Amino acid sequence: MEQQTQLLTQARQFGYIEGDQVWLRPFMEFPARQVGQVKDTEDAALIYFAQRFESFRTKVDDLLARITESENKGSFLMKALHLKEQIGAYDGLGDFTALHERLTEAEEQIRTLVSRNREKNLATKAKIIEEAEALHTSVDWQGGAEVLKDLRQAWIKTGPVAKELTDDMENRFQAAVEDFYTRKKAFQADKKAMTNRAFEKYKSLIHKSEALQNSDDWEGVTAQLKELQQQWKEVGGSLPRKTANDLWTRFRAAHNRFFDRLKEHISSKRSEAKDHYMDDNLTRKRDLVKEAEALVERPMHEAVARAKELQTAWKKVGPVRGPESDRVWEQFLSACDRVFELSSLEHYIRKRQPQEGPKPPADEQYAQRVAALKDFIKYDRQEQSVLEENLGKLTDTPGNEAFRSMLQSKIRAFERKIRTKNDLIEFLRLRYQQ
User: Fold this and answer.
1) What is d(CA 154, CA 170) in angstroms, rounded to the nearest whole number?
2) What DSSP letter does each residue of 228-283 carry, written as one string?
3) Nearest-angstrom CA–CA distance, 344 and 303
4) Is the pTM of this model over 0.85?
5) Is the pLDDT assigned to residue 434 strictly greater than 60?
6) What kind and span of H or E run contains 291?
7) CA torsion 279→281→284→285, rounded to 10°?
């Protein structure tokens, strides 16, 4: 009953009845207008149209509440405007002026927020464009493409800007993206053309080399092949690894073919003249081997000094022909290695023995030295294993040839060290256990 009374009071404040017509009093710029008819009693009609107003006000309240709760307030702007438009024509009795003011306030807040968001979006998109345009000089194609991918996602997630700026911003961003990919496409086309030119140049150098590989013009062709080698280095370009390796293998095979034949030619010319000379060298080197092998019986400081003198003397002796050269060299090298390894062993033992007092028994001296040698051999094998592992990882490319040779040389050196230490173990057994 109380609610009915309140509605009736509200209706009489904002409306009136004239004849059998229900009228809304003028408000704002709107004149008085008929909103309905009296169908039963005047009070019932007034209460009915007051209830219609309350229904409309509920819609306004609901909308304003949703605007307050929502993060995306801009999406409610058109709904607020639509309700404002209905105020001038809605059939009800109530304070439409207050509703209009509330909707107007909400509209202004939304427009202010939208304006701020668009300014923020403008700054964000301007930064995105700046980052995209900064790629204008970049040649990091993969990295640049990743950057543009992220920028595109950021662009999509960023809200709109003012309508008068939208086309200009979109055009600038798309122009920056297209500039990068246009340059990337041109670069890849140039790279492909350069690769094709490099491939043809390499093939030309291979054909020239293969045409010369069987020539007997030793001096002239040697100069020509060296010139072709220099041209090969200057070709440049970037080819797939397998293609580059295949071309290099063919090029190197032709050169190796000629220079192997050249070595044979030189060797055959010199062999007769060198026979007597090499026989004499072999005799001298065998004498050096014999003296070096006897050094292990001399005091170590004398043996080491003499071994170094013998090495100097060895360098002054000329070459020896055939397999005997390697054999006598291995004998000399092994003899010198035994001296140096034995000297290192004795130095190691001295550092770990008391300076005063009697020497340990022979069997204990033998055990100490064998244990040390076995530790040294273990270390050498570990080092050799590391070198062999690194060698196995090398790819078969021209740039790795020098490093490959160095690793192989070090591996052979450790093999010789291990062999020498094993020989010393047998030598010490005979020395200490006679």
Assistant:
1) 13
2) HHHHHHH------HHHHHHHHHHHHHHHHHHHHHHHHHHHHHHHHHHHHHHHHHHH
3) 12
4) no
5) no
6) helix 241-294
7) -110
